[in-house]
């Protein structure tokens, strides 16, 4: 059944695809919330990488990858909360959540 | 590497794709929830029970709810008149494809270098707890601090307007 | 004999899967367990509905259902048939797919919760190391279903009901989790069977249930309140407050989908009761050591039914809260109190055996309860209701 | 067992027997930590209260100290019972706080007669003073802050008393110092109070540095921070013997030298010569603070500390003999006793007199420790705590009644206006003077007797007798000024409220009667501390060495009282008029009034030295560095002028052109920076691709 040289490669490829999807979402969509969703997807794919390396790595009992993933989930939750708070705040200011209309930082 | 993996990978990727392609924001949010769930199941598939359930709890229980709330609060549930994609979506897609190409190529190139170990790690929740308050206690504390700061920050950012208008 | 009676369900399962080839036996065992859960709890649901209606009737000086079958016992059958043959109405503007998925995901998630509950000695379907986390992960996923139901209906009552429900569930979920963490801290495990084992000791004839400790009692109280809010039961049933919101997030559901919501709500009640019994009331262990000969599953289901009765009793007794009272209670009383209880639990652990820890923990908790209660009363947030015209 | 521990060098078999017979501490010993913990927790809670919440703050402070008092009494009763049954009298509970490398930092607490007596004294006197404070501070706006500090102080002081680890002792010691600072400067709006607080803090810090050096030395020599640890603590057995065998120079053993360093800490805290200058100034704080901290407990902590490490200093002494370090303690104590008593004669501030009296009595205690051992010094500490607290509270009552007047020349005749205060104050004053049969008589007599008995040198004995005479004299002077004659102040004096006089009455009872637990005929107190059996033996009283000495000291006291009455009794001089003693002996009066010029001496030496250093630095700054800086500045200025000329005439033309070019280029760059987040993200992603490409390309085989 094995199509990949190693099971790890399968997980890594899934993570890569997911990362690309997240990046594409963050780049092509105009709504800030979808951009945030894309960023969450990228974070998740990174977590998948961490866990996969933990599982197939030489020292799973050291728990390094797992700890990274747990802490990263926590940080991602904080990031989501702050990001969405910012979006809501920006929406109140500009009455839009479309990113290409929010260009006050223009140089 | 078995059927379950392929199924889960398919669900996850489909969820992710749907999340960025669906026009309706709420649908996108629900689709991304599917992707989150798929990743949680992939974690379970990787024998990381604790992380998997944590993923469920945090992402489906909290982040997804947060996202839909944000959508409703920004009136995102109504479709915008001009399209949902930005004008230069082609360049964006090319860039994303480029990133995928680079990462995928890197993965496939290093097949020989990746570890081949394939026994189930004997790690219990107890070990995770011990590691969290033992060797990794400093990161844990820092994350705790960060979460506190983020919570307060989010509240302040979202509340400021109301205060001013009073 | 008693031991066999205790293990009767396990023996039954082993006997049944004995007919199958050895290769698929573990899978078949799991499937049998799932079938058992899927059969037993909806049955219990049917019984509970009639029990609740009769009980409420008595509390309100009525008789309750008494037409269908002896003592009205077949009422749920009639209700079920009615739900099945009713027309399934979907509003024209509704988001059909989401509208369809919402009740399904809800019921599935709730059913999953039962997988980790130890319903008797060795009777947890799955004994996983992080069972409690699994339980909360599943119960957290129901919130999204509620949102899906409310949003997809395109009805402002549904939407408001869903928003209220989510706000309430998120607020009280924190209290629910934190009050359970006290038990985890003392038992030293997230696995529910292990938590029951930790309580299955006796001093004399009295059991070591966690409710009989100061912190455990406080946590159990908070757990009970949070569980009531989490399952949207009265007096926390604002999301479906019929006087304001028609029926809340399932206003636009009818027929079998409505029945699924109804089922999901009761199943959530069963599961959270089961969790409460497991965490604080010693799970399947007997209340006195000399009663240990009675099968363990009997005790588990007795405790679940007891807390269901308390749910019904509370529903028949207390009036509904106002939204701001609900939120204030969660964030200004329940959460700080539970956090304090966490600290007290740690204190309990570090003070070691002896009388001091009883005195300390009790004094701190009672003092905090009284002081915070006074503070709340003073701010008139959850104080007595005042009526402008009804006096 | 106590004997074995106090005198150096028990054999290992003794140690083993001790370990085998008493391995597990009793319940009260295990919970001894509660005694300091409860007031500290209460202080934390009070700190969170808002200022107007007066009642809860006072109730919390008083309630917590009551709990401590109850527990202290239980502990005391437990130790007394153990002593009476001749079983264990010292229980220790130790635990490891930190590991670093191979060594550990251990903390722990000890319950022995010394600690038990101090616990009861501190919590009892403290409780009375807390109650008194509710009346005294009733109108202060920072009422809750006061009780917060007071509770913290009580907790830390109780911590000092029970700690069995030098580190824990030092930590509590420093908290005590901190609260002392905070409370002296409680009315920080007054510049004098702020200065006094600073002075107290800095002066005691000088002693504390030596104390810390002593701790570090002890730790480095013994490898343990624990004082008692079943035979392997630093005050016990082989460890002490080992310390004794090392020489530290100047004829001192390591034990003696460490003891002296720790004694230096006690000198700072207890206001001994030459670090006594802060204590009289500390009277700027509220009077209950003066009573609690600067009379009864904190300053006595120094004496307690010396008593606690007494084995270190006493180690190696021949039976009945003494050691170099103890001789130092004796002489410093004696000198302080006389010196401060002399100054007290010529002061006019009611609290300042008491402050110098405190310094003098602390000198007495130190001398008692040096001459007669722990029991003698501690007995005077305990009795002194009661009558000096009484005197301070009485003084507070007087000040309260006279509308915050502190000058004794502007009082008078209060005998009639404040009868209760007068009665209790008189008892306290007589007890302090050593009037026969009152508390101070017995404890002071014990010290004199010890001084008389210690064979080699007689100097301390005569000096201490002289100090006793002076004590009686200046106290009589003060009482005559305040309570006799006629009223010379402004307004009318009034008696203080019940909540203030009630503690006075209780303390007066103790000041009068407490001495009877330690008379030569029935030395219960001394026996308890030294773990002997107490026997009643009235024959001791008629022994010439004891009986005659008692007669002599009584005589001295009467002489002092009579002299004081002769000079000041019922005279009520005008506030502006010179003092009676000044008229009699102006050459003596002036230096005494100016506190023997110690402050001036410090100002002329140490402070002047630092001032001179500061001025030298200032001069360097101005003259040398300042000139260099100006020179550099001038050079730079010239250079700038040159540049400007070049700029204006040479560069500008071409530069303008370049600027235009740059601005055009900037416009191009600005287009990239279009304010759209996604575009930035795009650039980032492209950069990632480029980076990955470079990495892969550069690492190709």
Fold and architecture overview:
The complex is a heterotetramer of chains A (107), B (166), C (391) and D (701). Chain A is mainly alpha-helical and 107 residues long. Chain A is 73% helix and 0% strand. Chain A has a domain of 71 residues. Chain A contains 3 helices and no strands. Chain A starts with 6 loop residues before the first helix and ends in a 13-residue tail after the last helix. The model of chain A has no long low-confidence stretch (mean pLDDT 83). In chain B, helix 1 packs antiparallel against helix 2 and helix 2 packs antiparallel against helix 3. Chain D is 73% helix and 3% strand. The longest helix of chain D has 75 residues. Chain D is globular. Chains in contact: A-B, A-D, B-C, B-D. At the A-B interface, helix 1, helix 2 and helix 3 of A face helix 1, helix 2, helix 3, helix 4 and helix 5 of B.
First-to-last CA distance of chain A = 55 Å
**Poorly predicted parts of chain A:** none
By secondary-structure content and strand pairing, the structural class of chain D works out as mainly alpha
Query: Quaternary state, please?
Result: heterotetramer
Rg of chain A, alpha carbons: 18 Å
Number of helices of chain A: 3
Strand content of chain D: under 5%
Largest sheet of chain A: none
Please provide the ordered H/E string of secondary-structure elements of chain A.
HHH
What general outline of chain D do the C-alpha atoms trace?
globular
**Unreliable segments of chain D (pLDDT under 50, ≥5 consecutive)?**
1-11
């Amino acid at each position: 059944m094995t199509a990949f040289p190693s099971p790890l490669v399968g997980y890594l490829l899934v993570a890569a695809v997911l990362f690309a999807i997240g990046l594409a979402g963050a780049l092509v969509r105009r709504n800030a919330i979808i951009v945030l969703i894309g960023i969450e997807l990228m974070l998740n794919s990174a977590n998948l990488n961490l866990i996969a390396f933990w599982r197939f790595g030489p020292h799973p009992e050291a728990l390094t990858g797992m700890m990274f993933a747990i802490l990263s989930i926590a940080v991602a939750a904080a990031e989501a909360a702050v990001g969405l708070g910012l979006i809501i705040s920006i929406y109140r200011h500009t009455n839009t959540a479309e990113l290409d209309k929010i260009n006050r930082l223009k140089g | 590497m078995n059927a379950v993996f392929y199924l889960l990978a398919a669900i996850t990727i489909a969820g992710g794709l749907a999340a960025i392609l669906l026009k309706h924001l709420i649908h996108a949010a629900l689709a991304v929830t599917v992707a989150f769930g798929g990743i949680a199941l992939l974690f379970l598939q990787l024998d990381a029970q604790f992380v998997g359930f944590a993923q469920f709890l945090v992402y489906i229980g909290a982040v997804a709810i947060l996202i839909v709330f944000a959508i409703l609060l920004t009136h995102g549930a109504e479709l915008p008149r001009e399209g949902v994609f930005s004008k230069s979506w082609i360049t964006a897609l090319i860039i994303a494809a480029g990133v995928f190409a680079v990462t995928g190529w890197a993965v496939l190139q290093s097949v020989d270098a990746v570890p081949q170990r394939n026994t189930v790690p004997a790690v219990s929740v107890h070990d995770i707890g011990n590691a969290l308050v033992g060797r990794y206690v400093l990161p844990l504390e820092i994350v705790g601090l960060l979460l506190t700061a983020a919570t307060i920050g989010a509240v302040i950012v979202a509340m400021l307007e109301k205060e001013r208008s009073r | 004999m008693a031991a066999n009676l205790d293990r009767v369900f396990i023996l039954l399962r082993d006997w049944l899967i004995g007919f199958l080839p050895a290769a698929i036996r573990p899978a078949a065992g799991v499937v049998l367990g799932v079938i058992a859960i899927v059969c037993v709890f909806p049955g219990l649901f049917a019984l509970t509905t009639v029990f609740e209606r009769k009980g409420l009737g008595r509390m309100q000086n009525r008789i309750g259902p008494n037409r269908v079958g002896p003592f009205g016992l077949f009422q749920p059958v009639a209700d079920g048939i009615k739900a099945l043959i009713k027309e399934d109405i979907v509003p024209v503007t509704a988001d059909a797919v989401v509208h369809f998925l919402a009740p399904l995901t809800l019921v599935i998630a709730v059913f999953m919760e039962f997988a980790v509950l130890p319903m008797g000695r060795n009777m947890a379907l799955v004994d996983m190391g992080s069972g409690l986390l699994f339980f909360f992960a599943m119960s957290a996923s129901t919130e999204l279903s509620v949102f899906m139901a409310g949003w997809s209906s395109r009805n402002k009552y549904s939407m408001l009901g869903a928003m209220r429900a989510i706000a309430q569930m998120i607020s009280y979920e924190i209290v629910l989790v934190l009050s359970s963490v006290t038990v985890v801290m003392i038992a030293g495990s997230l696995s529910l069977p292990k938590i029951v084992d930790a309580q299955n000791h006796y001093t004399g004839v009295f059991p070591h249930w966690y409710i009989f400790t100061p912190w455990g009692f406080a946590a159990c109280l908070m757990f009970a309140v949070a569980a009531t809010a989490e399952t949207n039961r009265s007096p926390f049933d604002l999301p479906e407050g019929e006087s304001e919101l028609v029926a809340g997030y399932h206003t636009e559901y009818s027929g079998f989908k409505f029945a699924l919501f109804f089922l999901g709500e009761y199943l959530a009640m069963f599961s959270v009761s089961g969790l409460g019994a497991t965490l604080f009331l010693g799970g399947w262990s007997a209340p006195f050591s000399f009663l240990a000969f009675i099968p363990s599953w009997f005790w588990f289901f007795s405790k679940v039914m007891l807390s269901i009765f308390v749910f019904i009793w509370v529903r028949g007794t207390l009036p509904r809260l106002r939204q701001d009272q609900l939120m204030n209670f969660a964030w200004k009383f329940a959460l700080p109190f539970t956090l304090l209880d966490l600290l007290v639990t740690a204190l309990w652990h570090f003070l070691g055996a002896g009388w001091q820890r009883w005195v300390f923990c009790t004094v701190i908790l009672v003092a905090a309860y009284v002081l915070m209660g006074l503070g709340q009363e003073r701010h008139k947030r959850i104080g007595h209701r005042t009526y402008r015209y009804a006096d | 067992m106590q004997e074995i521990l106090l005198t150096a060098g028990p054999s290992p078999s003794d140690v083993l027997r001790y370990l085998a017979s008493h391995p597990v501490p009793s319940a009260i010993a295990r919970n001894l930590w509660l005694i300091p913990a409860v007031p500290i927790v209460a202080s934390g809670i009070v700190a969170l209260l808002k200022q107007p919440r007066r009642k809860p703050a006072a109730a919390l402070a008083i309630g917590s100290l009551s709990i401590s008092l109850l527990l202290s009494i239980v502990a005391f009763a437990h130790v007394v019972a153990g002593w009476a049954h001749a079983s264990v009298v010292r229980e220790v509970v130790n635990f490891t706080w930190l590991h670093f490398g191979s060594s550990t930092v251990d903390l722990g607490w000890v319950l022995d007669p010394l600690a038990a007596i101090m616990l009861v004294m501190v919590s009892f006197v403290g409780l009375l003073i807390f109650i008194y404070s509710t009346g005294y501070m009733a109108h202060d706006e920072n009422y809750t802050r006061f009780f917060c500090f007071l509770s913290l102080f009580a907790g830390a002081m109780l911590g000092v008393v029970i700690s069995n680890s030098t580190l824990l002792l030092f930590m509590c010691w420093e908290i005590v110092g901190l609260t002392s600072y905070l409370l002296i400067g409680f009315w920080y709006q007054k510049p004098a109070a702020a200065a006094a607080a600073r002075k107290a803090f800095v002066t005691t810090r000088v002693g504390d540095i030596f104390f810390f050096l002593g701790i570090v030395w002890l730790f480095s020599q013994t490898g343990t921070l624990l004082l008692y640890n079943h035979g392997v603590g630093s005050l016990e057995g082989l460890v002490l013997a080992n310390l004794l065998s090392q020489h530290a120079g100047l004829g001192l053993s390591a034990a003696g030298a460490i003891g002296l360093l720790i004694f230096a800490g006690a000198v700072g805290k207890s206001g001994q010569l030459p670090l006594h200058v802060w204590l009289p100034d500390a009277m700027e704080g509220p009077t209950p603070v003066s009573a609690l901290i600067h009379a009864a407990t904190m300053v006595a902590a120094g004496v307690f500390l010396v008593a606690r490490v007494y084995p270190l200093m006493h180690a190696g002494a021949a039976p009945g003999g003494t050691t170099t370090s103890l001789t130092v303690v004796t002489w410093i104590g004696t000198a302080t006793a006389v010196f401060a008593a002399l100054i007290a004669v010529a002061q006019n501030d009611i609290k300042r007199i008491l402050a110098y009296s405190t310094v003098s009595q602390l000198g007495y205690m130190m001398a008692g420790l040096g001459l007669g051992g722990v029991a003698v010094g501690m007995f005077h500490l305990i009795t002194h705590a009661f009558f000096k607290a009484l005197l301070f509270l009485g003084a507070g009552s007087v000040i309260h009644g006279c509308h915050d007047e502190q000058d004794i020349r502007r009082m008078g005749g209060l005998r009639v206006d404040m009868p209760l205060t007068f009665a209790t104050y008189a008892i306290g004053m007589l007890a302090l003077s050593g009037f026969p049969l009152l508390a101070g008589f017995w404890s002071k007599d014990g010290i004199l007797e010890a001084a008389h008995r210690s064979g080699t040198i007689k100097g301390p004995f005569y000096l201490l007798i002289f100090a006793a005479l002076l004590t009686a004299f200046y106290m009589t002077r003060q009482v005559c000024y305040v309570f006799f004659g006629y009223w010379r102040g402004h307004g009318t004096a009034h008696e203080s409220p019940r909540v203030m006089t009630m503690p006075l009455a209780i303390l007066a009872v103790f000041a009068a009667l407490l001495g009877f637990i330690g008379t030569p005929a029935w030395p219960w107190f001394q026996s308890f501390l030294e773990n002997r059996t107490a026997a009643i033996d009235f024959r001791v009283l008629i022994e010439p060495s004891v009986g005659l000495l008692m007669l002599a000291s009584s005589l001295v006291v009467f002489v002092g009282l009579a002299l004081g009455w002769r000079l000041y009794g019922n005279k009520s001089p005008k506030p502006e008029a010179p003092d009676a003693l000044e008229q009699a002996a102006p050459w003596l009066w002036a230096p005494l009034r100016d506190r023997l010029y110690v402050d001036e001496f410090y100002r002329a030496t140490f402070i002047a030295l630092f001032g001179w250093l500061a001025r030298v630095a200032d001069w360097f700054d101005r003259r040398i560095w300042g000139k260099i800086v100006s020179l550099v500045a001038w050079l730079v200025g010239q250079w700038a002028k040159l540049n400007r000329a070049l700029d204006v005439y040479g560069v500008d033309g071409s530069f303008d052109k370049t600027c235009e070019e740059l601005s055009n280029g900037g416009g191009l760059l600005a287009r990239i920076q279009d304010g759209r987040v996604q575009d930035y993200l795009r650039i980032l992603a492209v950069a990632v691709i480029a980076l990955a490409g470079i990495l892969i390309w550069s690492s190709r085989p």
